[in-house]
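During the no-cost extension, the postdoctoral fellow (Dr. R.K.) reprocessed legacy sequence entries with the updated structure-token encoder. One reprocessed record is reproduced below for audit purposes.
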Amino acid sequence: MLIDIKVPILSESVSEATLATWHKHIGEFINQDENLIDLETDKVVLEIVAPQDGVLKKIMKENGGTVKSDEVIAVIDTEATASVAVVEPFGQAIGNMSKSTVSNTKVAGVATKDEISTVSPVSYLSPAVRKMIADYNLDASEIPGTGKDGRITKADVLEYLTNNQQQQDNSDIPAPVTPPAIIPRPQTLKPVENTDRPEKRVPMSRLRARVAARLKEAQNSAAILTTFNEVNMKPIMDLRSKYKQTFSDKYETKLGFMSFFTHAAVNALKQFPIINASVDDEDIIYHGYYDIGIAVGSPRGLVVPIIRDVDRLSFAEIEMAITIYNEKAKTGKLSIEDLTGGTFSISNGGVFGSMLSTPILNPPQSAILGMHNIKDRAVVENGEIVIRPMMYLALSYDHRIIDGHDAVLFLVAIKQAIEDPARMLLNV
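Re-encoded structure tokens follow.
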């Protein structure tokens, strides 16, 4: 039975996606729920898995192809038998095509030996690589592949061309001649020629391109201003040190600083609801809920998953949600729903060593809180100089709807909550 493999239904905000990397080849046997290809949207990378066991019969689009919701991208034959010829790595399979020992027994969806011998090796390559091979009149079987499963990449073709050119140049070099004595001369400002200046051009991923577009949109449309303050972290650090083991034993999760700042931010947002609002054309939308975006790093770039209804969550529930999102970000398991929405964001550049920064808005949100590194600094308390673990805080906000007065007081409210944690329990 033939089964169509389709692009999953994307969210309304995602019109199309890109086929990132095929993990299986035509003729290869696939187990149910095994990943066929990574699908990259402008928000997340999704895995499209096999719905049943079978053999991959057809691939409609190669890596880099643009697809839409519910579009058929491949066909699986649940009654076919895998072809031996195509389970080899691409480079090896291409090199061995002329000496294939595949049986001529015809299997549904699988080429026979005679058919394989008539197929051009170039047909297994990406469009960009095929074009380069055709333009330079190259033999694909002579090019070593370094891509996944031995696939030939553009970089492989360029390296092959470079090596061939160097061999030709070396063949024209005459035998070395002993040079005459050189009289030392004063050095000049003329730069020394350096041929070892490599460059690599790669296209932006769909996620990176979308992030770039949204950040540029924020700069172009919002009147972004940043205000700063500093906070004494000693009360929170003492509280965390005292209860972190008990907290971990009871909830099986670590007690971090982010849950404190998330609770402090929600308390401050309740006092200054304009910070939790957004702009829609000429209207201001006040949100009566608190969906907080927590910026986390991933192999594909910065992402901001959303913790919803934070005002209803305990410290432990916030910490568990952050842990889950961190793991999903590292393994590429974040869904579109995980990244959709949000009324306010928090970014902790301090985990990377940042001392001070001006975070940029995440549209359509109107404000974002930036946390930074904790450093021991000399401060004055009650007329005396003491050493305290201090952190700089930054609030970037859209000055079109948020006045400096509210922004400054909002940051002060967070500072007061962190320096006196009892405020969060008493909601004062």
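The chain has two domains: 2-120, 206-426. Confidence is low (pLDDT under 50) at residues 84-123. The remaining legacy entries will be reprocessed before the final report is submitted.
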